[in-house]
Amino acid sequence: LANTFQGEGEPLIASLALSGLAFAANYSMIRWLGPSFIKAGLKGRDMAKVNNKYELPECMGAICAVVYLLVIIIFIPFPFYKDIVVATSGGGNRDVVMNVEYVQKGRLLHKFPHSKLASFLSAIISLQSITLLGIGDDLFDIRWRHKFFIPAFASIPLLVIYFIDFGVTSVVLPTVLQPYVGRELLDLGFLYYGYMAAFCIFSPNSINILAGINGIEVLQSIVIALLLAFNDVLYLVTPYPHPATDSHLFSLYFLLPFLGVSFALLAHNKYPARVFVGDTYCYFAGMIFVVVSILGHFSKTLILLLVPQIFNFVYSVPQLFGLVPCPRHRLPHFNARTGLLEPSVTKWGDKQPHLIIESVLHLLGRLKLLRVKVDNDTGRILETSNFTILNLWLVWRGPLREDRLAWEITAMQTAVGLFGLFIRHRLALLVFRE
Length: 434
Ligand code: UD1
Ligand code: MG
Hints:
Blueprint: H1 9-39, E1 43-45, E2 55-57, H2 61-75, H3 81-89, H4 94-97, E3 100-102, E4 108-110, H5 114-140, H6 144-147, H7 150-166, E5 170-172, H8 178-181, E6 185-187, H9 190-209, H10 216-236, H11 245-269, H12 278-295, H13 299-305, H14 307-320, E7 333-335, E8 340-342, E9 345-347, H15 355-366, E10 372-374, E11 381-385, H16 389-397, H17 402-431
Helix pairs in contact: 1-2, 1-11, 2-5, 2-11, 2-12, 5-7, 5-12, 7-9, 7-12, 9-12, 9-14, 10-11, 10-12, 10-17, 11-12, 12-13
């Protein structure tokens, strides 16, 4: 392994080992601390179970985040150890000479990669901020329209470092557009920072609203993290050192411990769940993806992996923006008689939708993109299914058991993600000359 990954195998082995530790630590801490969380009032009822009198610990993402941050802080010296050795001993071996800059006077001046360290630290500050904000949300149940913008604050450390160290704000134009615009690159300037901030807001929230059945938040995050890690490995096993090697190593260092804590959480949160992940985990996961893809310069690849989340968000817009009433919970409805999940619904009753909205609802119903129940006598809409991908899946597939629904959505996420990576690596060559 040490040789395969272009001489950077040693920190990678340390990262793998620490990720194993993160798994073990998180697995046992969730078991030990669950009862304390209940005592502190961080608990919730599982709405899709017959016997839901007992409350389960909520906000286990806080434990994941703390274990993760400790591990990543312990890891900091590893990718820099060569540089640290040179800086403190004056160096001597061949590896070291590469990190050394000869100054005219003949003195050796070591160039420590401060910008690489800055990326690390800014990533950690962003993740710490999102953890604090997530715990705040779990404690106080912040209103949706307020909490939506929470991640924007956590993005500031990232954007500052991006501005100072990279400052690349241009995008490559597709080859067909180049003759019209007259150049290969289009500089977006400050718009690019707006795009990145929007991304920081979108990613954590999109994970949080694809939620409500056992294991789904963790499963989708694990799939996205595995696909991102797979994408990173593709850059590390090239026969010649790829120019983006460093970015992709950076990304792996952040993804591996995340996978460690997430698998431990999944063990407790999978059907039938013994704990809930809380908003902390959803925000934290979403922020991990943003951190690695912005600092690793592959935010477009992440967009391809978030297609189900983007669909779920766009589909949710009517309820998120109040065109259709949005109940506190939109998770699928549990039918206690059959033990299966069915689409949950919004009842219309006396307050009928506006005429335009009514016709759109009917259209969506005809396109099988919504379940619409109409009163046969009056033609009025009685109820419509809630606008989430989980409910839509049940509209298509009929009632399903909770674990079955979670696995089907996970399989879909994996298939869509693999297809996204295929597009990224094959078809992109047709659209963008590399
Ligand atoms: C988001 C969704 C909401 C969904 C909720 C479920 C939007 C705008 N908000 O709200 O529609 O109902 O997530 O997490 O789309 N729960 C279960 N089983 C599970 C997971 C959660 O019953 O497998 C319940 C528990 O009672 C738990 C609660 O959901 O306490 C957690 O909800 P929370 O994460 O606070 O909801 P939001 O993120 O605000
Ligand atoms: Mg939530």
